[in-house]
Here is the input.
Amino acid sequence: MSLQDASPYFAYFDLNRKNRACLPASPIEASKIRRAFPLRPFISVCHCRVESKEAESAAVMNWRTALAMFATLSASVVLADDFKTINGKEYKNATVNRVEPDGIVLETKSGISKVYFIELPKDAQKRFGYDTDKIEAEQAAERAAARAAEEKRVEEQKAAQQERAKKRGKIESKIESTVSVERQITDELVHDITWSMTLSPRDLSFIHFIGSFSPTKLSFSNPEDAADVLAKFVEWDETARRNNAEPFRKKINDQCTFEFKHGERGGFSELECYGKAPSGAFSGWFSRDDIDKLNQLLKQLPEAKAELASKIAKAQKEEALFK
Here is the structure.
């Protein structure tokens, strides 16, 4: 038979025999062979020549290569294994479907399950490239960076708050020194005798003016303290007069001292006051008549507070306009 008349041959590997053969195959025979081996992916067709022993040798070599590839691929894809988590759960005869960044997807007879690396023993983790020490170090570095960023943000926020408070303090200090509300009473007979009440953001003060003499001043950081002191003076004065008490001195608070005296027309009282300066310098005294005038002024305190609040709001608005 010449090479031109040679019929095609079907080269195959018989898994049940040790020998390999190159047999003639008509289209019908070839179809039968394909149906006999539908799941064997590495069967190949070649055109062999009866007279060519070199073609037979080449076919055998191709089969060896194909078989090696098949064995390698089967081992890497189809190989099943048993997996056991650190909690004792087992996956028998499981095939790794795919590997994900945080775990592996296993395929078993019961279905598909995902097992996270943190559920697997150390050796299984390393087998699939999951290094817990490295990951923990990276996570620790990330946490440290996040803490540092948060601390920096907090420090910047505190610095900004302090700066705003500093600016606000300057504004408030300026307003405190410039904004105030004053009320005044003048003696009906002697017009150069006056009693005034001045309310500012810092304090409430009373001043008694008598002509060219040095004024007497009484100040309170808390306006409510003023009401308590004046009320206590009136209470003690009336009690001392009613009971014709012997002369005595008694402190109302650290700043004010009540003193009851006897005079030509009977007993009378004075309120001796001292300034708020560290030296505690003497500021003067107020008589019962002075205290009555101060109580009259104190009745106007609610109205004075409302007026002061309006002035402060206006001053703050103006300050904001002309920064």
